[in-house]
């Protein structure tokens, strides 16, 4: 598991730490600006060293992790989780955003409107639009 003290390429480390399924996906994410170190975008050839703090964006999730160990070999998930530690602030932020997304999805209806429901909605819109037009025409005089 441990590598030399010199460091390891960031795309290889992200793949070994199981942030991305393949090295080419990790490379594409780095080139797309999804990986940062100290607020700056990194290049694919950047070397990762123990103690570095990386910000990695995957979909909706943005994780801030501290590198704890280096590995160029992809191992099982429990071993990969020993390579980094996510910061407390990052965990709290991700949980907050996840709960906000869940609450936002609760506002959706359970099913699509039926034909009758659509007729009622259209009738409601037409009646209100008509009343709205009348209101403005009376106030223009």
Q: What is the CATH top level name of the domain at 8-86?
A: Alpha Beta
CATH superfamily of the domain at 8-86: RNA-binding S4 domain
Low-confidence stretches: none
How many H/I helical runs?
5
Percent of residues in beta strands? 15-25%
Please give the order of strands in the largest beta sheet. 3-2-5-6-7
Given the helix and strand composition, which structural class is it?
alpha+beta
Task: Name the helicity range.
Answer: 40-55%
Question: Layout of SSEs?
Answer:
Elements: E1 8-9, H1 10-16, H2 23-31, E2 35-37, E3 40-41, E4 47-48, E5 53-58, E6 61-67, H3 77-80, E7 84-86, H4 88-105, H5 115-140
Antiparallel strand pairs: 1-4, 2-3, 2-5, 5-6, 6-7
Helix pairs in contact: 1-2
């Amino acid at each position: 598991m441990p590598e030399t003290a010199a460091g390891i390429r960031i795309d290889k480390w992200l793949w070994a730490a199981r942030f991305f399924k393949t090295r080419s996906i990790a490379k594409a994410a780095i080139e797309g600006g999804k990986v940062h170190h100290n607020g700056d975008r990194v290049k694919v050839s950047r070397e990762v060293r123990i103690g570095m703090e990386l910000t990695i964006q995957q979909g909706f999730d943005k994780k801030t992790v501290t590198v704890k160990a280096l590995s160029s070999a992809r191992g099982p998930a429990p071993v990969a989780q020993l390579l980094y530690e996510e910061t407390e602030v990052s965990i709290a932020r991700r949980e907050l955003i996840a709960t906000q997304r869940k609450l936002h999805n609760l506002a959706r209806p359970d099913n699509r409107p039926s034909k009758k429901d659509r007729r009622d909605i259209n009738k409601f819109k037409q009646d209100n639009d008509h009343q709205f037009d009348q209101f403005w025409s009376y106030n223009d005089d």
